Amino acid sequence: MSTTSADTEASVAAGVHSAIAAYAQALDAGRTDDLAELFVPDGVAEIAGLATFEGQDAIREGFAGFAPAEPQLHLVANTVLTSYTEDEATAVSDLVFFQRGESGWAVQLVGRYDDTLRRHDGVWKFRRRVTTFRP
Q1: What is the 3-state secondary structure (H, E, C) of the chain?
Q2: What are the per-10-residue average pLDDT scores of the chain (135 residues)?
Q3: pTM listed for this prediction
Q4: Among 29, 65, 88, 111, which residue has the least CB neighbours within 10 Å?
């Protein structure tokens, strides 16, 4: 059975979307081990203007400092695959971060993810994730 370009794009898109969703779920639950495992061993997580973490151990330790004290929710939308091969892809996504406080859920920030992902041992993982915030 031959694979078409559309089949490849659909497969890559599914893997990329799965990694992006798993990241949001792990981040909101404070599961830093799971979050670090979503990156290749030498992966980079950059939060523009705040910090850059290189490697899974640094990502795990760095994101432990962001562990949620209150319920939180990252909504990721409008993800677009901007380039891809069978083993690497880039994507952009919009981000809205909510936190629940005494008066209910409130938007804390709006931003964007710029991602480069690589197929690693058959699973799509982040090679680089850059988070930028919009004023």
Answers
A1: CCCCHHHHHHHHHHHHHHHHHHHHHHHHHCCHHHHHHCEEEEEEEEECCCEEEECHHHHHHHHHCCCCCCCEEEEEEEEEEEEECCCEEEEEEEEEEEEEECCEEEEEEEEEEEEEEEEECCEEEEEEEEEEEEC
A2: 75 97 97 98 96 98 92 97 96 97 95 98 97 95
A3: 0.93
A4: 65
